[in-house]
Write a structure and sequence with these properties.
This protein has four helices and five strands, in the order H-E-E-H-H-E-E-E-H. With about 160 residues, it is α+β, with helices and mostly antiparallel strands. Helix 1 packs parallel to helix 2.
């Protein structure tokens, strides 16, 4: 234990302590919440949580995969991503989709900024690759989320059934 009359240590130690404190504060700002998708720790039976940058990434995914109006307590939460399921993947529609998703993410996830959404115009087996890059404001860390978005999923299943 350190006495009051002893020096705290050299400036490197103080700098490291301060740096660690800042990182802890930033992680606290990013928060902790239930892991998405929800899962249970088999050892404790408790819901798993995520924190920090992982929490932000899961929040972005949750916003995209929740349809607006799906949550009756907060009807404005979510996106209109599923409304594009049966769209014609023209350059114009991909730009509309990209701009819509960008504004929704900036509106609903206050921990991110500098959102860029790239949608590969090449449709492979009815699937578009959506790539989202963003900056976590508090830590100035860049992160990304890439996921497949399936077009005309119902129609593709019907066509597969007809060929069999």
């Amino acid at each position: 234990m350190q006495r009051d009359d002893e020096p705290l240590g050299n400036s490197d130690e103080i700098g490291q302590i301060t740096e660690r404190s800042v990182l802890v504060e930033k992680k606290m700002f990013l928060g902790t919440g239930f892991k998405f998708p929800p899962s249970v720790d088999p050892g404790t039976g408790r819901f798993l949580t995520s924190s920090g940058e992982q929490s932000v990434k899961e929040s972005v995914y949750l916003i995209l995969m929740t349809q607006r109006g799906e949550r009756w307590v907060i009807p404005e939460f979510g996106s209109d991503l599923m409304s594009y399921t049966f769209m014609d993947p023209s350059v114009t529609m991909l730009n509309v989709m990209s701009n819509s998703l960008r504004s929704i993410l900036l509106e609903q996830e206050p921990r991110i900024s500098d959102v860029q959404i790239d949608i590969d115009p090449q449709t492979r087996e009815g699937c578009l690759v959506v790539s989202i890059q963003y900056r976590i404001t508090e830590s100035n860390t860049r992160d990304n989320l890439v996921f497949p978005f399936y077009l005309n999923a119902g129609r593709m299943e019907e066509e597969a059934d007809e060929t069999q």
